[in-house]
Amino acid sequence: MSISREDVLEYHRRGRPGKIEVVPTKPVSTQRDLSLACTPGVAQPVSEAVEIVRERCPGLAVDGEMQADTAVVRELIEERYPFSAVRDANVLVFPSLEAANVAFKLLDRLGGAEVIGPILLGLGAPVHVLQTGDDVENTVRMAAVAVMDAQSRGDTGPA
Questions:
Q1: What integer pLDDT is reported at residue 136 of this predicted model?
Q2: Residue 8: which of 40, 42, 33, 30 has the closest Cα?
Q3: Torsion angle of alpha carbons 72, 76, 80, 84, nearest 10°?
Q4: For the chain, what is the radius of gyration of the CA atoms?
Q5: DSSP 110
Q6: Three-state SS at 93
Q7: Running DSSP on this structure, what letter comes out for residue 60?
Q8: In this structure, are residues 81 and 70 in contact, taking their beta carbons and an 8 Å threshold?
Q9: Is the distance from CB of 155 to CB of 148 less than 8 angstroms?
Q10: Could you list the mean pLDDT of each consecutive 10-residue stretch along the chain, which spans 159 residues?
């Protein structure tokens, strides 16, 4: 399933019926219905990431774009996404570094979640960053992530 930027733009171009320009809604029955309701530039990167994961790891339970609260609250998933393949998300993928950083900070500071990251992907070396003000515990966690990253690459360190 691929949702093009044109599909999303066409969805938003449609006229807005009624005096207060409210678009009537319908029950959501597929991931495509959800994707078409998203803002251009947000749904597309996540949709593309999901397609890549499904191609490379067909046995992995993965869902497409959805609100962050829905992704982590079982009752919301069951109510809003009855077709969802995931019920207890433990990894969240965001459409941009900015969105991920906002969620990361909120989960860490306000939500009391145990957060590890940010974890950078796609670099040619096992390089990760520490956030300003990180404590010793997070520094140790990120060092462990860097070690696991290096080991998975077969990196034995400096020659």
A1: 92
A2: 40
A3: 40
A4: 19
A5: T
A6: coil
A7: S
A8: yes
A9: no
A10: 64 53 50 55 73 87 81 85 82 78 82 78 81 86 89 71
Give the distance from CA 156 to its chain's centroid.
Answer: 31
pTM (whole model) above 0.85 = no
Alpha-carbon dihedral 150, 154, 156, 159, rounded to 10 degrees: -110
89: three-class secondary structure by DSSP: coil
- Return phi, psi of residue 145, to 5°: -60, -45
Place of tokens 């360190």: 157
Dihedrals phi, psi of 52, to nearest 5 degrees = -65, -45
| Distance between first and last Cα of the chain | 46
Q: Residue 7: which of 38, 45, 48, 28 has the closest Cα?
A: 38
| 100 close to 49: Cβ distance less than 8 angstroms | no
Please give the Cα distance from 35 to 47 (Å, whole number). 8
Take residue 117 and report the two structure tokens written for it. 């990251």
d(CA 152, CA 13): 46
